[in-house]
Amino acid sequence: MTAIKYEEGYSALPGVGIVPKPYQLWTHPQRTWVEAIYIAFSVAWALEIVSHLEELCFWLFLINVGAAQTSWFRSVHFKCWVVGSFLAITGLPVIAVLTRENPLKCEAWTIFVGSIGSLLITLWFLRVLWLFPAFLRRVKTEGAEPEVVVRLSTFHELNIIRVVFRFMFVLPLLTLAADGIKPEHNHVNESPFWTDLLAMLGAIGCIVSSIITLLIFFPRSIAKEAGYKPRQKTMSQNSRGVHVGARNTQSQAQQIASSPVDIKDPNLYDEPLQQPQYGRPPAIKIAGASQRAAATGGGVWDRVGPESTNGGGGAWEMVDYNQYQQHGVILPTVMPRRGSRRETALHPMVLNYTSPIDLIEGWDESDPSPARPTHY
């Protein structure tokens, strides 16, 4: 349409002056394109409404849903998106077809209805902005992955900027369209200054908000693009900071980090070493679990049994005496942690969030009763 208008140029009308050539004076081949162009324009705007309505319903669903509630495809938010998408895809093209005989009227009504739909979606996004900080705090409290928290925080910051430009996009075009659908006294559209100013503001708002939408729908991961992978904890790394015996200090524990433990060291034991007798070799008790946890913060030396009632060291880690007889030196072992598994109140789509259009990653939507997610 822009190319056609520039090709047709301007014309001098008596009593009006030099203005862009009215469509009635266009050459016949150019006029045949007008109807198809405005119908395509209405379809494009309808798809824009569909994409933003999906994102709005997605965030309202994610903010209000719990871990044991229904899936996205069985939620009322998804049904609202389907109904709204159907109305947008059918409504705007129908309006363009019904008003196609008058291109100026077709343009005004298409922009008016499209601006109303986009304005309603933008106003509802204010509710998302209002509820999102509390939702983000809940995600952090429930212990979501740092990468998920970063993505959600980035979305919130981008969405604040995008909503501002969405208003810059919708309000100027709505003003022009509302003035254009009037049968007479089109004061805004008759002023070249206001027409150009509002049109440029709407174009800038549309371009910037669309770019931000692409950044939200297709987020970049600089770490993955650079080939960075988090280092996995190894057994030797998990064994660092071992503190054995009540007499060892924190500095001594750091000195023996990742080093073999000499079982002949007298400071290693909390009670005198018993001499083995005939029969089955006895087991050696190595450092109370509570003392090891006090030095290491409950790392690999977590207790392996219930804590005693008198606040003592709890259960001991048992080491076979035959291993000492053969090698004389033992290495710290990694003990499984108990009691660290807990449930989360977050929906699986929150725990696996990547993008508003990546809806089922990490979760089987076909499961009618999905298990409550857990993390360690």
TrEMBL record:
Transmembrane region(s): 80-99, 111-132, 160-178, 198-218
Highest taxon of source: Eukaryota
Alphabetically ordered keywords of this record: Membrane, Transmembrane, Transmembrane helix
Record-given protein name: Transmembrane protein
